[in-house]
Amino acid sequence: MLTFQNVGLRYGTGEETLKDLNFSLAPKSFQFLTGPSGAGKTTLLKLLMLSLKPTRGKIEVFGKDAATFDKPAVTEIRRRFGVVFQDFRLLDHLTLYENVALPLRVLGREEADYRAEVFELLRWVGLFERRYSPPSVLSGGEKQRAAIARAVIGRPELLIADEPTGNVDPPLARRLLRLFVELHKSGAAVVIATHDLDLMDQYEAARRLVLAEGRLHVYE
Ligand SMILES: Nc1ncnc2c1ncn2[C@@H]1O[C@H](COP(=O)(O)OP(=O)(O)OP(=O)(O)O)[C@@H](O)[C@H]1O
Questions:
Q1: What pTM, to 2 d.p., does this model score?
Q2: In a domain, 82, yes or no
Q3: Is any atom of ligand 1 closer than 6 Å to the C-beta of 41?
Q4: pLDDT for 184-209, tens place per residue?
Q5: 109 burial class (0-12, 13-18, 19+ CB within 10 angstroms)?
Q6: Rounded Cα gap, residues 20 and 23, in angstroms
């Protein structure tokens, strides 16, 4: 699904943040991405979602060289991805319900057809009572749950999540992990960046990608 060949990423003129990355993300695979703060996890996720270009090496997405993609091609590929950003990126002029429903609207689905589905997911993440609130009145943990709901509602082929349980307590983190595991079982590839060792222990079948000093170590 995604392949990195000798990928390096340098911000400005300093040392490379990521060096010689060689790995693949298989369809229907599940992996945690971990490593110390500042190791480059968010940077790697940005490369995966094509919002950063590598300074060297090659990234292939669905068998094509990402360097050849124009803007419409990137937009088209991003529609197949679900992303939970570290800073949530909810739209404040929309209600929570509208935020979560947005990927389905973009896919051209009718509200009558998706309304119950969005309600069910909002119930699952504990935000049903808040469904008509704007994101600005939510707590950090509530925003995080809304961002997760929005990322999974369209059943993406690849889910990319940056510290998706960083703002919630352990029982809620386990509940949210179940959402990602369900998505995985229904056929999606999943990449979750996290520092949370307990969370990683909850899903032993997951591959671990560990970033340290700019290099990626893969533990199957
Ligand atoms: N836009 C940028 N310009 C310059 N340097 C950057 C930029 N974004 C990140 N960096 C640097 O790249 C390194 C990796 O940052 P990154 O956010 O990818 O790490 P991280 O592993 O996600 O950290 P954390 O766990 O704290 O979120 C850091 O040293 C950071 O300062």
A1: 0.93
A2: yes
A3: yes
A4: 999 999 999 999 988 999 998 899 99
A5: middle
A6: 10
Map residue 214 onto helix, strand or coil. coil
**13 CB less than 6 Å from ligand 1?**
no
Residue 210's identity, in one-letter code, is V
| Closest CA relative to residue 160, chosen from 60, 22, 30 | 30
Q: Is 214 in the pocket of ligand 1 (CB under 6 A)?
A: no
Domain count, the chain: 1
Residue 42 lies in a domain: yes
* DSSP 3-state percent helix, strand, coil across the chain (nearest 5): 40, 25, 35
Instruction: Give pLDDT tens digits for 69-81.
Output: 999 999 999 999 9
Q: Output DSSP code: residue 36.
A: S
Domain, as residue range, for 200: 28-53+75-219
Question: How far apart are alpha carbons 161 and 124 in whole angstroms?
Answer: 18
Which H or E run includes 142? helix 140-152
Compute, in angstroms, the gap from residue 43 CA to the centroid of ligand 1. 6
Question: Residue 195: which CATH number?
Answer: 3.40.50.300
